[in-house]
């Protein structure tokens, strides 16, 4: 696909001067200073620049790289600005940037007139903004929209890329969509940056008979590798787009809402550019679209609960109707266990899928078939779905923009988290599609595949493993588990240790941090709107202070003293009684923590689960 000349394509301003005055902020594009705007620091009102807007001496002048929008809290408006960026590569010849730092600037003075409760609430809301400032995996471009996949881009009407960037974008994948309202209303099209949450990975190789050399340049989620196989330079890119309609954290956003939007819904696109051709393969992942939950309670693996609701059949129907409208034929691959709580959830899912004859449902117990070491056993799954997967195909255009193939459907994969097992499976399907694509244009013959070339295969698997890490960081707060299965096709000792550390980190974050993070995501996505002149809308943290620190101290102390007294118990009966007493105290503390686990964890305060 040819890239349109810059003269015919809408382009955002890419660098700004931020002038801070006592009464206002002024934002001016460095290339066009007369086109800026001001934001009143007292009431948040936005106005285009006039002759007097920049008069006087600013208290501070700094450079920013974009305006993410505005959000209104109790005290007034906050302006989001991008203060640091990093260029991570090119998409179809146009530069892509990652947000490395951003900041919410207060534009209000109403807080000094607020009640004590409003001040308390505003302090909490500011804590949420601080959490949002460190959001991982945010990308943007000044020259092209990142939210549309290649097939949709190529099928849009001519001239679509001359529209303002926010009009080109798919709102479901725009992380800051809820913040853009004021900028859109003021018609500041040149300043409105749609920000994508996901990840973008690049892999460059030269196909040349036998792999003879390679070089890797890596910077966080950006990777370039130059390899040689058969004199055919190629670029493989993986772009993942996170849907914002049920944005959330691992334990506090499970299943679907009543509209059919699934948690952790991510569209992943594998793009291959080679010999003038461009291939695109789409896959999607998302939580099982039933109404279910898994509330943290300090146990390592909280029980799953399926919420019986009369709307459940309609929720599933709405979810898959939306997918069919966007992607065509859908094949749902369920990777959950077939026993225990997961088995009950999988069975409920299968029961609902029987009511959708146009969607094929495939149950594959990943843990039973593949275990923790046998990545190649996914071939068993491919035997079941391979024919239909190949019929769904991929998207292909030639150097003259002629559409040669269209992808007719997608695989929708899920496990419980839609992270670890799902990413292993998606990387396997991406590898199968890449083999078909290289054979389609004669780069490889029918007996060759990407795994034939060891170095290339290693780099291809690495970007899929890093893709899994990025998606996992955004949802669970840690790197993905089972990354070794993607990188090496088997579990290694180093990988097992890394998985153990990630599992412990997930436990801590899920139980003691994610309640606040969930509130921050509900705020940024617009699911929760701050109201003014009304009673506090925040759900109370609790009527009594948390006794977890005291309970933890008693537990550790009880175990320590019990161990010591048992060691000394042989001396007299009194020591036996002391040992029994402290053992009883320890058992009581354990029972108390277990019984009150849900009350000791970090819980969201803004929105209900569904």
TrEMBL record:
Residues 129-477 form the SAC domain. It comes from the Eukaryota. Residues 37-56 are annotated as: Disordered. One of its GO terms (molecular function) is phosphatidylinositol-4-phosphate phosphatase activity. Keywords: Membrane, Transmembrane, Transmembrane helix. GO terms for biological process: phosphatidylinositol dephosphorylation. Residues 40-50 have a biased composition (Basic and acidic residues). The lineage of its organism: Eukaryota, Viridiplantae, Streptophyta, Embryophyta, Tracheophyta. It comes from Arabidopsis thaliana x Arabidopsis arenosa. This is SAC domain. One of its GO terms (cellular component) is endoplasmic reticulum. The chain crosses the membrane at residues 200-220, 547-570, 576-595. InterPro entries: SAC_dom (IPR002013). The keyword Iron does not apply.
């Amino acid at each position: 696909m040819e890239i349109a000349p810059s003269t015919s394509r809408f382009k955002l301003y890419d660098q700004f001067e931020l002038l801070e005055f006592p009464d206002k902020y002024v934002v001016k594009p460095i290339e066009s200073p007369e086109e800026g705007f001001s934001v009143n620091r007292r009431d948040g009102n936005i106005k285009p620049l006039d002759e007097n807007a920049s008069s006087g001496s600013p208290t501070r002048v700094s450079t920013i790289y974009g305006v993410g929008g505005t959000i209104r809290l109790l005290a007034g408006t906050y302006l989001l600005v991008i203060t640091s960026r990093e260029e991570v590569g090119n998409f179809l010849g146009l530069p892509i940037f990652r947000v490395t730092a951003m900041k919410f600037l207060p534009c209000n003075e109403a807080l000094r007139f607020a009640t004590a409760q409003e001040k308390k609430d505003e302090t909490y809301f500011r804590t949420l903004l601080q959490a949002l400032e460190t959001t991982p995996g945010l990308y943007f471009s000044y020259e092209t929209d990142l939210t549309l996949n290649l097939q949709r881009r190529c099928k849009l009407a001519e001239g679509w890329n001359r529209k303002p960037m926010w009009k080109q974008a798919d709102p479901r994948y725009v992380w800051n969509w809820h913040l853009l309202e004021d900028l859109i209303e003021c018609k500041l099209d040149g300043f409105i940056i749609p920000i994508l949450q996901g990840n973008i990975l690049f892999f460059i190789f030269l196909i040349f008979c036998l792999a003879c050399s390679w070089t890797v340049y890596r910077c966080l989620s950006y990777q370039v590798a130059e390899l040689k196989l058969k004199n055919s330079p190629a670029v493989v890119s993986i772009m993942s787009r996170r849907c914002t309609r049920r944005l959330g954290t691992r334990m506090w956003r499970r299943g679907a809402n009543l509209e059919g939007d699934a948690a952790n819904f991510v569209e992943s696109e594998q793009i291959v550019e080679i010999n003038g051709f461009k291939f695109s393969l789409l896959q999607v992942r998302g939580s099982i679209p039933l109404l279910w939950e898994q509330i943290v309670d300090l146990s390592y693996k909280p029980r799953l609960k399926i919420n019986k609701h009369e709307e459940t059949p309609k929720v599933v129907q709405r979810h898959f109707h939306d997918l069919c409208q966007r992607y065509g034929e859908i094949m749902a691959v369920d990777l959950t266990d077939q026993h225990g709580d997961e088995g009950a959830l999988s069975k409920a899912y299968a029961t609902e899928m029987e009511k959708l004859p146009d969607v094929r449902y495939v149950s594959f117990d990943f843990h039973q078939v593949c275990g923790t070491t046998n990545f190649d056993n996914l071939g068993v799954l491919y035997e079941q779905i391979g024919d239909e997967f190949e019929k769904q195909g991929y998207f292909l255009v030639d150097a003259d923009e002629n559409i040669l193939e269209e992808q007719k459907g997608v695989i929708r994969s899920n496990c419980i988290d839609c992270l670890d097992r799902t990413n292993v499976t998606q990387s396997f399907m991406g590898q199968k599609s890449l083999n078909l694509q290289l054979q389609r244009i004669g780069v490889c013959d029918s007996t060759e595949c990407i795994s034939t070339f060891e170095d290339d295969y290693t780099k291809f698997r690495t970007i899929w493993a890093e893709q899994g890490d990025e998606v996992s960081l955004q949802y669970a707060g840690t790197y993905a588990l089972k990354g070794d299965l993607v990188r090496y096709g088997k579990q290694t000792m180093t990988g097992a240790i890394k998985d153990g550390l990630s599992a412990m980190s997930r436990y801590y974050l899920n139980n003691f941090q994610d309640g606040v993070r969930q509130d921050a995501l509900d705020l940024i996505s617009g699911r929760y709107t701050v109201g003014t002149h009304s009673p506090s809308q925040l759900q109370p943290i609790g009527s009594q202070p948390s006794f977890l620190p005291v309970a933890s101290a008693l537990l550790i102390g009880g175990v320590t003293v019990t161990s010591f007294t048992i060691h000394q118990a042989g001396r007299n009966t009194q020591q036996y009684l002391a040992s029994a007493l402290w053992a009883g105290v320890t058992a009581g503390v354990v029972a108390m923590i277990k019984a009150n686990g849900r009350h000791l964890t970090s819980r969201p305060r803004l929105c209900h689960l569904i």
